[in-house]
Amino acid sequence: MFLKNTLSGRLEKLETLEPGVVRMYVCGPTVYGLIHVGNARPMIVFDALRRYFEYRGYRVIMVQNFTDIDDKIINRANEWNVDFKDVAEAFIQEYWRDASALGVRAPNFAPKTSDFVPEIVNAIEQLVRKGHAYVVDGDVYFDVKSFPKYGELSHRSLDEMIAGARVEVSEKKRFPLDFALWKAAKSGEPSWDSPWGKGRPGWHIECTIMSTKLLGSTLDIHAGGEDLIFPHHENEKAQSEALTGKPFVRYWLHNALVRVSGDKMSKSLGNIFILREALKKFGADGLKLYFLSKHYRSPIDFSIEALEASAKAARRIAESFRNFESRFSSIPVPKSDAWMSEQRQKFVEALDDDFNTPKAVAQIFELVGELNKFMSEANEEKALKTYHLLRREFCSVLGLFEAGAQSQETELDPFVRLILDVRKELRERKLYDLADSIRDRLKSLGIEVRDTREGSTYSFLKEV
Ligand SMILES: [Zn+2]
To answer: Is position 445 within any domain?
Structure first.
């Protein structure tokens, strides 16, 4: 498999530190509010990538953190007159609700900053001792000039970085790009003991500590949104490598952003679409198809129309699956043949090429067309093979058709079928007005019935 590494800017063959194991870290949310559609992109993409690694035979150890010590959380806690931990805990729970509704699997470890403060303090002490950090009035700063490779990940010189970044101005810093590892306590803020007095960790050091404590000094994959490359990931890399003397990450992967009229979708710009609302409107699979139809390194211009089209496509695919499934009480596993191997090879070739999900999704659409065709031709054997590839392999590898909304539809299925059986009998007894009334009432509940020569089929007009 080849992946584009942000560090080299090139496609590189995936070779993990330990053969057969992928150690993977994804920067998680700062928990002070509900997440939005822009946040969902890395969740969907890197969950699918993790599933794909597993499909290719790797064991994956995935860590995604929660930033629970942060100005925004502290401000909210003061506003609400509660402890910062209560704010963080509440939004961590909301995050899990959204992730499960979206059908994104939980990582193996989901550490919180506040659980790692002693380890963070210890690492900062080492950085000071090694001459990579300095103490000023209870603050500790990383000395960027002590790390000659600084800028390597963002591919920019120190001057370019100073010019391009909104660098926090402080008289305490020796150099504008130096960043806080530890911040001295201010009143009204939570604080922890340290050799430099009471204070709290800066943002970047937490990811260094949580990733290396849980995965080792060198990670195979570090992923996140491209807005994190500078300064967050550049800083993580500098601290980690200054600390351990080893390369921090083998492959840096960054997804492009979701833009709204040219700007990135972000809480601070106030142009967000809350994920929970989007899930209600477009469904988990509509959202997943929308994001996976684009390459993860290409920006997406947020579009309601495109999302609606994806939601519609997702409903059509789900309907094809349901139609096929209704023919069996239990669906057999087909014997693999040359055609199935060819399809698998095509799928793997697409995803091995820097995780080209648009190609894989196009193949899924093609196969859904085939499935419908084989069903209408009553070619049971071919239909079964196509269904198997689609549902049990390709869709499941991309995390499609597995989320809560879909399972609710699956739960409703036996009841809808019972109603349709009764309606069929009514029609056979020529009680057409009753049969029509059932059809109309189902439609008002969001279930559309279509009568065909082979019998009646149905689809959900909206997410249930
Ligand atoms: Zn991070």
So the answer is: yes
227 C-beta neighbours (distance < 10 Å), count: 15
Contact 457, 319 (CB under 8 A): yes
CA–CA separation, 7 and 107 (whole Å): 24
Highest-pLDDT range among 91-95, 185-189, 440-444? 91-95
Residue (of 112, 96, 93) closest to 104 by Cα position: 96
Residue type, 238: A
State the pTM of this model.
0.86
The CA distance from 227 to 349, in Å, is 29
Q: What's the CA-to-centroid distance between 373 and ligand 1, angstroms?
A: 47
CA 25 to ligand 1 center in whole angstroms: 9
192 contacts 122 by C-beta, under 8 angstroms: no
Q: Which residues pair with 13 in a beta bridge?
A: 2
Q: How remote is the CA of residue 207 from the centroid of ligand 1, in Å?
A: 5
Ligand 1 center to 236 CA (angstroms): 7
Q: How many structural domains compose the chain?
A: 3
From the CA of 135, how far away is ligand 1's center (Å)? Answer: 23
Q: Among 173, 186, 176, 232, which residue's Cα sits nearest to residue 206?
A: 232
Same domain for 131 and 244? Answer: yes
Q: Are 319 and 447 in contact (CB under 8 A)?
A: no
Å from CA of 211 to ligand 1 middle: 9
Cα(375)–Cα(149) distance, integer angstroms: 60
Tokens of residue 172, six digits: 């305490």
Residue 19 lies in a domain: yes
**164 exposed, middle or buried (CB, 10 Å; 0-12, 13-18, 19+)?**
exposed
* Residues listed for the chain: 464
Report the pLDDT averaged over residues 118-134.
Answer: 98
Over pLDDT 90: what percentage of the chain?
Answer: 83
379 alpha carbon, distance to own chain's centre = 38
Task: Give the structural domain span for 316.
Answer: 303-397
pLDDT digits (tens, 9 = 90+) for 331-344: 888 999 999 999 99
Question: Distance, CA 126 to ligand 1 centroid (Å)?
Answer: 20
Whether 230 and 323 map to the same domain: the answer is no
Task: Say if 316 falls within a structural domain.
Answer: yes
* Structure tokens given for 344: 């698998």
Rounded alpha-carbon distances, angstroms, from residue 123 to 131, 151, 360: 13, 22, 43
Residue 294, in any domain of the structure: no
Q: At what angle do helices 37-55 and 275-292 cross, to 10 degrees?
A: 50
